Amino acid sequence: METIGVIGAGQMGAGIAQVAAQAGYRVLLSDRDIALAEKGKAGIAKRLGLAVEKGKATASDAEAALGRIETVGDYAAFGEAILVIEAATEREEIKRAIFAEVGKAMGGDAILATNTSSIPITRLAQAAPDAGRFMGVHFFNPVPVMKPIELIRGLATSNETVSRVETFAKKLGKEVVHANDAPGFIVNRVLMPLINEAIFALGEGVANVRDIDTAVSLGLNHPMGPLTLADFIGLDTCLEITRVLLEGTGDPKFRPAPLMVKYVEAGWYGRKTKRGFYDYSGAEPVPTR
Ligand code: 3HC
Dihedral sign, CA of 173, 175, 180, 185? Predict the structure, then answer.
């Protein structure tokens, strides 16, 4: 059984650990400390339990998948991993520190991949143990549901690295797309202007939260309206990516909507803080404007 290391047991890391374990890999799941890794694993257990209840997975398959996930408190065991995926907080200095640390434990042939949604891969590669065995592997939230994976190679990434990661992604049952190391890659380059424009429209009084979301969701047949989706992703993350698009392209069309900046300054990040364009403190989200 091949071993995969996952760094970060939050929404994305736990999702990645889950799909890798369900695809038959042994998964080492880590976070800042073992308690956080265990919290991530408990969330996976809950989601697998729901899948069993719905008849989408058998109890024995779910139990076996969960059994393949081991929480770890440090990177010592990561020497056994053929691939390590970093899905930690979207801050460059945090990722760089992780790469330096995990690099000491990783085997000479192992690949390090980052789930960054916006930081340039070629720049991050400078902190990796080997730029040839480093690349971007961008999953979407919620990971078990969303089909695509963007694969992003840095300037020094080897063909072998891309091909090995592509094989892994396909084993997870994902649809692989290749993107160049350009700001926002593909999906966020297209998505963030949509979200940003919806926030401009709200700020300029074109319509209220409910009507913008209802119109776009039904009018474009999207599962969520753009303001609901912004709350789901996190407004802090949306702002971060929009700024990367602006800085990376120099194109003013990517300037963040003032209302998005204000909400982030207020600490209204969306679902995770219970307040964004909706209020999540009750049983159902309530629009706030
Ligand atoms: N983890 C695992 N599975 C989940 C889940 C989660 N967090 N949330 C929902 N699901 C599953 C449900 O169990 C259900 O599975 P089933 O069909 O097997 O029963 C299925 O998804 C549908 O869920 P629900 O019926 O509860 O609710 P919805 O039909 O409203 O679907 C949704 C929820 C899948 C989140 C859907 O609203 C959706 O697709 N929204 C858009 C999500 C999106 O655009 N994601 C991309 C964000 S951008 C990104 O990630 C990039 C980053 O860099 C910013």
Answer: negative
Of the CATH numbers 2.40.10.340, 3.60.10.10, 1.10.3720.10, 1.10.1040.50, which one belongs to the domain with range 187-284? 1.10.1040.50
Helical H segments across the chain, by residue range = 11-22, 34-53, 59-67, 92-105, 121-125, 159-171, 187-203, 209-219, 226-233, 235-249, 258-265
Residue of the CA atom closest to atom 54 of ligand 1: 233
229 lines ligand 1 (CB under 6 A): yes
Report the complex ipTM.
0.95
Secondary structure (3-state) at 69? strand
Residue to substitute in 47, 139, 145 for testing ligand 1 pocket (most ligand atoms within 8 angstroms of CB): 145
C-beta 255 within 6 A of ligand 1: no
Q: Indicate whether residue 16 lines ligand 1 (CB < 6 A).
A: no
3-state secondary structure of 150: strand
Domain 3-179: CATH superfamily, name plus number: NAD(P)-binding Rossmann-like Domain (3.40.50.720)
For residue 142 and ligand 1, the question of a CB distance below 6 A is answered with yes
Q: What is the pLDDT of residues 88-105, one digit of tens each?
A: 988 899 999 999 999 999
| pLDDT of the residue at 91 | 87
Nearest atom within ligand 1 for CA of residue 47:
2
- pLDDT tens digits, 18-54: 999 999 999 999 999 999 999 999 999 999 999 999 9
Domain boundaries, the chain: 3-179, 187-284
| Residues 269/233, Cβ–Cβ less than 8 Å | no
Is the shortest distance between the CB of 145 and ligand 1 below 6 Å?
A: yes
Ligand 1 atom at shortest distance from the alpha carbon of 191: 48
**Confidence (pLDDT) at 288:** 95
Q: Which residues belong to the active site?
A: 117, 138, 150, 188
Instruction: Tell me the per-residue pLDDT of 194-243, one tens digit each, with 9 for 90 and over.
Output: 999 999 999 999 999 999 999 999 999 999 999 999 999 999 999 999 99
With 90 as the cut, is the pLDDT of residue 261 above it? yes
